[in-house]
Design a protein that fits this description.
This protein has one domain (about 10-235): Vaccinia Virus protein VP39 (Rossmann fold), CATH 3.40.50. It is globular, with a radius of gyration of 17 Å. A seven-stranded mixed sheet has the order 3-2-1-4-5-7-6, sandwiched between helices. It has eight helices and seven strands, in the order H-H-H-E-H-E-H-E-E-H-E-H-H-E-E. Helices cover about 40% and strands about 20% of the residues. The structure holds S-adenosylmethionine.
């Protein structure tokens, strides 16, 4: 597989196994040890997860539906999906993230009152490029931010090739307003902004999907003060 941004991928892996892991585990968790900005990002991200779950459930029960959660992080989506009865394949480039997701899944996916036990997701340490197989649905939330558009095209095509029915993606939208925020962020980098962030225009994502015969069916926009995400559901044309 080709390197993301020429060595970027190694930087991303290293970040999400160390300081990035600590930072994002806190943001995606529920403890009070977050600052105001992190709390706001936590809220925005939880809305993205919620909207994704309702997009998925709109098409009927998830019982037995196979879902690939690419770049699963700490399992924010994989765990509720497993609770819905989905057969989840969760993977991430970061071994620390995968270990945390697995730990949380084991804690949270316990037998319910009616006696049924959800099936634990299948976890693997894998980058997106080395994922294979076929799934009813492929989901990839807030990962595209680590890919420049030149690499994002291939990544989107690859994810679509793994999906039978649909692909759900979220990314930081390249809009005028957000572009400016990002530039301000670059002028005043915070201490833990270890990785570069790439924004994507919806038109570029749409073009990448079209190239492989997919089209956008539904979309949503999630914004809080510091979190911006475009959420799209794509299906084969
Ligand atoms: N999708 C999760 C969620 O929404 O809760 C996590 C989002 S987090 C901002 C980004 C995740 O993408 C990190 O866990 C990181 O390790 C993972 N990641 C970054 N580049 C990746 C790649 N090339 N392949 C697989 N995972 C990657």
């Amino acid at each position: 597989a080709e390197e993301v941004g020429g060595g970027d991928k190694e930087v991303v892996r290293e970040y999400f196994n160390n300081s990035g892991f600590q930072r994002w585990k806190k943001i995606y968790g529920d403890t009070d040890e977050v600052n105001r900005v992190q709390r706001d990002i936590r809220l925005g991200h939880s809305k993205t997860v919620e909207n994704t779950l309702s997009m998925l459930k709109d098409e009927g029960s998830l019982q037995g539906v196979t879902v690939c959660d690419a770049g699963c992080g700490t399992g924010s989506l994989s765990i509720p999906l497993a609770k819905e009865g989905a057969v989840v394949f969760a993977s991430d480039i970061s071994a620390a993230m995968v270990a945390e997701a697995e730990k949380q899944a084991k804690e949270q996916l316990v037998a319910s009152e009616n006696g049924s036990t959800p099936v634990l997701p299948k976890f693997a340490v894998k980058d997106l490029e080395s994922l294979d197989g076929k799934y009813d649905t492929v989901v990839c939330l807030d990962v595209l931010i680590h890919y420049p558009q030149s690499k994002a095209d291939g990544m989107i095509g690859h994810l679509a090739s793994l999906a039978n029915n649909r692909l759900i993606l979220s990314f930081a939208p390249k809009t005028f307003y957000y572009d400016i925020l990002k530039r301000i962020g670059e002028l005043f980098p915070g201490p833990s902004k270890a990785t570069r962030a790439y924004l994507h225009s919806e038109a570029d994502v749409e073009r990448a999907l079209k190239k492989v015969g997919w089209t956008i069916r539904k979309k949503g926009l999630i914004t809080t003060q510091f979190y911006f995400a475009r959420l799209i559901e794509a299906v084969p044309m």
